[in-house]
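Would you be willing to look carefully at the protein I have copied below?

:::
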Amino acid sequence: GFCANLLLSQTPEHILAQTNNKTEIICELNKEHAGVYWYRWNQERQNFEFLVFLNLLGKATYGANISQDKFSVHGATSHTSYSLHISRLQASDNGTYYCSVSQSFQLLLGSGTWLGVVDVLPPPPKSTQAPLSKKPMRCLTKSKAAGKKGACNPLIWVPLAASVLVLLLTLVPTAYRLHRLRRRLWLRIH
C-alpha cells in the first residue's frame, strides 16, 4: 500500500510550466535509503503511474512506456536528496508527482508536487504597491525603534500581564490570613 509520510519532503509544491520547457522536482529524505521511486498521480484515470526508480548505484529502472529522454533522476552522494528532471513538457505531463521510498513492505510517499503545463504562461500579477512618497521620512535609531516596538509588542506585555495577575491571585489568600490573624488578636485583647 501507499502511505503519505512527512519523512519525505518535496519542493516546490506547485509548478506551472510552459509547453516544451523543462522542470525539476526535488525530494529530500530524512535518512539514507536504498533508492527512490517516482510516481505520477493521473487525475483523469485515478491511478498512480510508475515513472522511474533510481538505486544507490545510480542505475535507473523505468516504467512501461516511460521515455528515458524525457525523465531522468539525479541523486546526491549523501543519498538523501534526489531530483526528478522532466524535459519537453506537454499537457500529458499534467499531474501530481510523488517521490517514494520502500520501508517495511510499504511505499512511503512524499508531500507531492502538482505540475500544470500550459501553452502560454499568465503574466505576473501587477503590483498593487503604492508609489513611493517623495516626502522625507523621519528615521529612528535602533534604540528608539526597539523602545517603540517593546511598548506594543504582545510577546512582552501578555506574559507580563499574566505574571501580575498570578501574583495578585497568590496575594489574596495571604491578605485573608493576615486579616484573620489581626481579628483574632483584636478579640484576644478585648
About this structure: The mean pLDDT is 79.
